[in-house]
Amino acid sequence: MIVKTTRQRRNPVDGKFSVNGIYICFRVENKLDDFSSGRDKPSPKEKSSKSSPRRSKKGERHDLTRTSLTLYYNTEREVNTMRVLAFVNQKGGVAKTTSALNIGAALAIEGKSVLLVDLDPQGSLSKCAGFRSLDDDPTTYEVIKGDADINQAIKTKQGVKPYDVLPTDIRMSGAEIELISVPGRDTLLKEALDGLEKAYDYVLIDCSPSLNILTLMALTASNKIIIPVAAQYMPLDGMAQLLPTVELVKKRLNKGLAIGGVLITMYDSRRSMDKGIIEAINGRFTDETFNTIIKNNSKIAEAPTYGKDIFEYAPKSAGADAYRAVAKEIIEREG
Ligand SMILES: Nc1ncnc2c1ncn2[C@@H]1O[C@H](COP(=O)(O)OP(=O)(O)OP(=O)(O)O)[C@@H](O)[C@H]1O
Ligand SMILES: [Mg+2]
């Protein structure tokens, strides 16, 4: 048996295991069925060899010394160094997408390698990042269905510093119904992320405003959740559903899942109600709430119209300063 090792990770692989936190993937070349299909027939001499004869189901003789096992490893891609953060809140319009995009862009400016995953059939994150028309390009939808390689579907956004986006569009809207009877559907996104060739520091997942199958997939694939809450709503009401779901996922699907932060967004200091809401959130999530509060800011609202993040559109705005500060807090917490 020949064993080759290579640094590059390839798809598809036949299996994988981890040693000291490093993924080792393997691929078996010249498998028994390659012989039986006639693609790599043993020579007459090999046929008569008695070195390692083995009988297949069809009664053919194969020489296992001709089987090569190729190990792919990637020393940069240690299992625990990629932080996967899901932006979740089933309440709509609380700045999940805006925060995922702008925090992702800020992390890239801070020198981190970033992948943004659009898991919302509305495709808002993709559009905000400037990927408006995806035509027949593969999207998150094809990736989770196993019809496309995640590495082929990723696009690069040339922001102030580049970052990657796994885009989606309305095609994703069929996913929930299509996946309902697929066994192990909760782990489909996690498995797709396991196939990433690039070693990202951060993967940020933008979820839809619902606790549906897609959101469960995100929770299963993530280390932490970031909960954006808009100061103008009574946000703790919405959490009454979210927190039990997180507990359920922790129990059944992803033991390591934790709350990575609660981010107060769309704050308006002129509204007296907003102050009360901040106190309520800080009281309930004392350790988790970010020190930075994202205030209402017209530049933040305008940037998506141009397919730009806040650092491309208005780098000197208060909105850019705020998202830069949150990204720094995330780096302090997560590394
Ligand atoms: N700090 C802010 N100041 C002003 N407008 C903002 C701010 N943050 C977000 N917005 C605007 O609020 C709207 C909702 O934001 P966003 O789409 O990010 O919310 P969401 O939680 O992702 O919504 P959905 O639940 O529909 O996915 C958008 O029009 C966005 O531009
Ligand atoms: Mg959104």
Compose a concise summary of this entry.
The chain has 335 residues and is an alpha/beta fold.
Query: How many whole angstroms does the radius of gyration measure?
Result: 24 Å
Query: Mean pLDDT, as a whole number?
Result: 83
Spans of 5+ residues with little confidence (pLDDT < 50)? 1-11, 31-59, 75-79
CATH architecture of the largest domain: 3-Layer(aba) Sandwich
Roughly what percent helix? Answer: 25-40%
Biggest sheet architecture = 7 strands, mixed
Q: Which CATH class of the largest domain applies here?
A: Alpha Beta
Sequence of strands across the biggest β-sheet: 9-10-8-11-7-12-13
E-strand count: 13
Bound molecules: adenosine-5'-triphosphate, magnesium ion
Structural class: alpha/beta
* Through-space gap between termini: 42 Å
CATH topology name of the largest domain: Rossmann fold
